[in-house]
Every structure is written in C-alpha cells, then in structure tokens.
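lol ok so funny story. i was supposed to be doing the assay writeup but got distracted and ended up predicting the structure for this chain instead. priorities right. anyway since i did it might as well share w the group, maybe its usefull for someone
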Amino acid sequence: MKKSLLAILAVLAILAVPAFANGGADDNASKVYVFASDATWPPMEFVDDNGDIVGFDMDLLDAVADAAGFEYEVQNTGWDGIFAGLANGAYDAIISSVTITEERKASMNFTNPYINAGQILIVPAGYSGGEMLADFAGKKVGVQQGTTGDFAVEDVPSVDRRAYDDVGLAVEDLVNGNLDAVVCDSVTAIDYVAANENFKGKLQVLGEPFTEEEFGVAVQKDNAELLALLNDGLAKIFADGTQAKLVDKWLR
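and the output, tada:
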C-alpha cells in the first residue's frame, strides 16, 4: 500500500508541474498597465464631479484596451514631471493629449496618431483684429508651460509670452483682462469657449489652427509589447467606427 500511495503521489506531482508552469502565462495575461494622464484638459481628460478621470482620451483608452485585450489603470499626474516619470518607469505609458514630435521620439515611442489637433488662439468675445500669432506683437499671450503651444509662442519673440502651470489659469486671466490671448490646442480651446459654463459668451476661438499636430500615446522606449497592443487596438477602433463616435461625443 505504501508503495502504491507513493507512486500515486509522484504521478500527481508530475501532473501539477504544467499547472504551475501555466501560472506564468496567466500572470502575463493579467498584467495591469499603468497610464499617466494630466487630467486638467477637458474634454480630453479631466476629473468629473464624482472624482473620476473622464474624457475623450479615457473613453479611447477603454475602447483600445477592450479591443486589444489588456487591463489598465490611470494615474493622474502633473504635466511638469509626466515625461520624467515615464523615463523613470513610474508608469508604462502616457495618454494625455501628447503631441507627437521628433524631439520626444528620441526618448519615448509613440503609437500611431489617434487624432489631429493644432494650436489656436482664444481671445475675448468681440475681438476684432489680426488672426495670426504675429498680429499679437507686444501683447500678452498666455500658454501652459512646456506644451507645444508654449513652444509656438516662443518662436515669435515679439509676443509677450506669459507661462502658466495650467492652461485654465491662463484662460481665467484672459477673462479677467490680464491677457490679450491664450494659445492652446484646438480641442481644448473649443471646450473652454463652447462647453465651459464659466466662460460661455466671454471668449471666442480666433481663426483656424496655425499648426498641424497629431496626438499619440507615449510608451516607454523598450516596451514593444504594449506599443503593439495599443496600435492593434487603435486599428480596430478606427476600422469599426468607435473613434469617430468618440469624436462626435466629445469634440463636436
């Protein structure tokens, strides 16, 4: 009996090995990717009345994750340190209206673009004058520090550039008469002018975007697996019309 019992236990031990080996695959399948987002850019990403991060980017990420089959969580992160955190491994990727630039490509990878946006001017309602950034020579123009809008204004030295930690603070100063204009991406500009109850009727978007900019998800340079998953999911939601529906929901 003892020999038979030992034989049975030995067989059971052997059969258990694949189960433990498969555990590694299960762990990989259940990996949760962490995405950083500066949730201060409605309608792209912002915190709602319930304290949840919502917006176009959040719905897009949810749709991409569902299409590509991965789990994720979002970490609200200030813009000033968001790229340093990616480089240091604090999170796996950034989805936060990040413009794809050649400079940024040197230190991070980007998914295929998921929306095209450009920098535009916001001015007080009733403004009459030139519609080009150069027309604001000697005038105070607000920007969020470190953004592509900031870089665009820096390229026009005749403009009196005023940098802010948050574009919303610049818009408030514009409404209060402390600025002549604000530069930000067209998506954000439309939200402040058309959707924000505090600013309705007080502001207008001036002219057309003066830059062509594409947003992408920024991924750690060595994370080819996540990059492939994201691009796969993006391709699927473009093909089935989900991306277009999100544009209609948030950006029209």
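Residues 97 and 215 are 6 Å apart (CA to CA). Confidence is low (pLDDT under 50) at residues 1-28.
back to the writeup now i swear
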